[in-house]
Amino acid sequence: MNHRRMTAIFILFFVAAWLGISWAESDRQGSKDHPLLSRMPNFHITEYKEIEFDSNRFIVEQHKKSVPVNVEGHKYFIRYSLDKGAAKPGNLTIVRNVENALKQIGGKVLVDAGSQWGVFRSSTITVRKGDKETWVAVKATDTSYELTIVEKEGMKQEVTADAAAMGNDIHATGHVSVYGIYFDTGKSDIKPESDAALSEIAKLLNNDASLKLYVVGHTDNVGSLDSNIKLSKSRADAVVKALTGRHGIAAGRLKPHGVASLAPVASNDSEDGRAKNRRVELVKQ
Fold it and tell me: By CB atoms within 10 Å of each CB, which of 23, 143, 167, 221 scores lowest?
């Protein structure tokens, strides 16, 4: 490029900036807006990730305290940056636009963006449509913003609990961990996709009429120990109730207990480790 052409381009950019003209920039290849949200004017996508099943820790407010909540499902991460020369809308304007757009379709703001943290403002919003719940976290500066979106769902179960394999583990080690029983975060209601695992536990008990089990609920270390003790016991109670009520197992053969995060099988410092620690364990009496 010769000197005269470079000078002309420089003058063009200078005049455009002086006149308030912005330059629309291209999105990152393969990226797209999420179906729930259009973008702010004069922004383009600079980073995009989509994972079929992953987790994200969202911040919510409970009793005037910020509390992390893990949500699993189809995950999106989208970062938008302001086009060159475009006027800065301000971080509060960006976050309020996202909040208001989601509230118009029934969204609920769990963390309001009224407070600023350094150069950032952030908010957490949930949207429920039918039996589908979508979590959205927005984090904005004056020149960029990020959306982390999780369409909450149960993981497609590809490895199922098998009665024979569980029986082998119990007779060999006295216990077996079951990962096919699912609960929503912070709740003890058994989700429908747990039916296969519960049927195999019932089969295990029917195959050995003398077998008696402790049903032990385990959690990760998110939240207080006291609340997790109650939660893990409630989940163990729910499993026992399902086995006795739906599958006809005698109540005297099962005893529920909850130990919260006191018996981890992996580090709670990573999501993979926390997922392994969230389990139901069958222990031979």
Answer: 23
pTM: 0.52
How many angstroms separate the Cα of 146 from the Cα of each of 85, 117, 125, 136?
20, 15, 14, 10
Domain 163-284 has CATH 3.40.50.1980: no
CA 144, distance to chain mean position in Å, is 23
- How much is the pLDDT for 14? 47
Q: Please give the full DSSP string across 214-239, using - where no structure is assigned.
A: EEEEE--SSS-HHHHHHHHHHHHHHH
Instruction: Measure the CA–CA gap between 69 and 141, rounded to whole angstroms.
Output: 24
pLDDT confidence of residue 21: 45
Question: Which tokens is 32 given?
Answer: 């797209």
Strands 213-218 and 254-258, by their bridges, are parallel
Domain boundaries, the chain: 18-152, 163-284
- Amino acid residing at 215: V
Residue 113: its pLDDT value, please? Answer: 72
What is the rounded distance in angstroms from the CA atom of residue 133 to the CA atom of residue 74?
11
Q: Tokens 């296969």: give the residue.
A: 196
d(CA 16, CA 10): 10
Radius of gyration of the chain (CA): 25
Q: What are residue 218's DSSP bridge partners?
A: 279
Question: For residue range 135-193, what is the model confidence (pLDDT) as tens digits?
Answer: 999 999 999 999 999 998 754 544 456 888 899 889 999 999 998 898 888 889 998 88
Tell me: pLDDT of 115 over 70: no
